[in-house]
Amino acid sequence: MRPINEIVIHCTATPAGREVSVAEIDAWHKARGWSGIGYHRVIYLDGSRMAGRPIERIGAHVKGHNTGTIGVVYVGGMNREFTAAADTRTPAQKDALLAEIIDLRDRLNIEKISGHHDYDAGKACPSFDARPEYAHLFPAMDATASVEDDILRRGDHGPAVAAWVDDLARYRKKIGHKWPIQPTDAFDHTVELVTIWFQQLRGIVDDGVVGPQTRDEMDRALKGMPPFQALAA
């Protein structure tokens, strides 16, 4: 199991009363270039607690903080008119969300909880303040640091860049690509372009940034495995 120390709460940003399935969310996220549903747990309107992405896999739900977190989403988060953010949790959802949080906390020794908007002030998600609502369940929260994703991007230098370039070269050789990439420890324009090429081949977000999903895809690619899919076919 990967190290996990935090739960991040989300909403689906859909109108009150409209049910959304795990399969629908999976399709939305695939359309964004992700490996399927980015959340690990989904809370339906009737309080059903559903599995999304396997918990042992890094999620795709909070930019810069996926490595050490679990993403839990409830269906809703917008008013019925779909004009404004709103805490639309049904009584059943509130009970189920609380039970899910306690279960994850106790099973995985998690010490912190946040809402998506705590990491992105431009978002209303999850349309309520998760930290104060659940703070009593996490007495060590204020002393628990958030884990930041290990990211490589254009302008970076050092051994981590050199290792990534070596992986790119190994993959190009593995598939018989004609032009090798030269060893370097500088994440320059060429490395960015080759990273985008790799991301496009694997069907993931082609932003030229090396984060958890891109690293995972490289590991799978070098092993001859197909691109990761969050939900089994």
The CATH H-level homologous superfamily of the largest domain: Peptidoglycan recognition protein-like
**What gyration radius follows from the Cα positions, in whole Å?**
19 Å
Helices and strands, in order, run as EEHEEEEHEHHHH
Helix content: 25-40%
Going by CATH, the architecture of the largest domain would be: 3-Layer(aba) Sandwich
Multimeric state of these chains? single chain
- Give the helix tally: 6
Look at the structure and give the CATH class of the largest domain: Alpha Beta
- Average pLDDT over all residues: 96
Strand order of the largest sheet: 4-3-5-1-7
Largest sheet: 5 strands, mixed
Structural summary, described in words:
- It contains six helices and seven strands.
- The chain is α/β, with parallel strands linked by helices.
- The chain has a five-stranded mixed beta sheet with strand order 4-3-5-1-7.
- It is elongated and about 60 Å long.
- The two termini are 23 Å apart.
